[in-house]
Amino acid sequence: MIHSLLRRDWIGRIRLALTLFGLPYTVCTPGARPAISCSYSHNFRTSQTLGPISTSFCNLYTTGVQTMPSSSAPHVKSRCPQYPGSKINRFLVPDDKVGWSQNWPQYKPLSYTDPLVEKKPVWADPEIGSFSPKFNTVDGAVDRTSFEGSYKMEKQKPLNPRGRTGVTGRGLLGRWGPNHAADPIVTRWKVDAKGGKTLHSVSKRPVLQFVSIKRKDCGEWAVPGGMVDAGEQVSITLQREFSEEALNSLVITPAEKAKISDRISKLFKSPGFQVYKGYVDDPRNTDNAWIETVAVNFHDDSGNSVSELPLQAGDDAGEVQWVDVDSSFPLYASHSHFLELVAKERKAHW
After folding, report:
1. What are the C-alpha distances in Å from 186 to residues 95, 303, 338, 341, 344?
2. pLDDT tens, residue by residue, 118-170
3. Which domain of life is it from (predicted)?
4. Closest by alpha carbon to 166, among 86, 74, 94?
């Protein structure tokens, strides 16, 4: 019994240390087999908790596959010690002080907004006080609603629905409150020389491939994606981001662009599997600005749609290629979790 108590205390201390340093951790219980193999500390709840999906912007479907992260799990990457792209050190926030319901008079975070954001580009809000945004609603062309529900306000500024991050302001993000993004996950089956599905040597399940880009900012492989422009439908963002980052549609000829557009439109009009919708635990998040995304899987089942198009890196991508979906392949942010859910939905190897 004493050894058990000491072990729990030791594990708790290590988890707290990892959290404070912005590192992921695993949770494994001896003698018990988890429903999902030990992985990063992001819990999920089933898609049955999702509200109805608007068919006005996408032909989507969801299943019982777990798709939403539990709000009971404290965000980790949003509390990384140093804010990305700056020399700003976050105020260290332990797990038990993340929630806004916890009274913490000693909490004195620095305020930081990146100089680029302060230059007032078209995609960024002005400073609070110089304009009067309408939060928790669609404010003109800007959607300021959150997938997390109604968020609280303090001193005219929105509060991160997942709690404290150790820094206030907007950081690298343009909008006060939710910054909406879209992540298109485009997949196909890996096939052999005869066109048959390739089965994994161990799992004996068919192998999926997805379009992956290598990010220029951090050098990590990721799913293509980007921010939803003001007034833009999510379906348009999904298609635009994939075209710009994976097919370099910004620099091709009009004739080539028309050919690509036909193929892409056909695929993106097919029923897409909504993999995830909600808050993203991202190091760019602050107490007053955070990222939320919709991740959708579009599958080229026959292999005669985007599979035949030449991939070419563009926009924010350094490289682009078809990559086998496999748990051993490291990916940016929570993208590995997205691919795991896609593999389960398609009954493919993971």
Report:
1. 36, 11, 12, 13, 15
2. 999 999 999 999 999 999 999 999 999 999 999 999 999 999 999 999 999 99
3. Eukaryota
4. 94
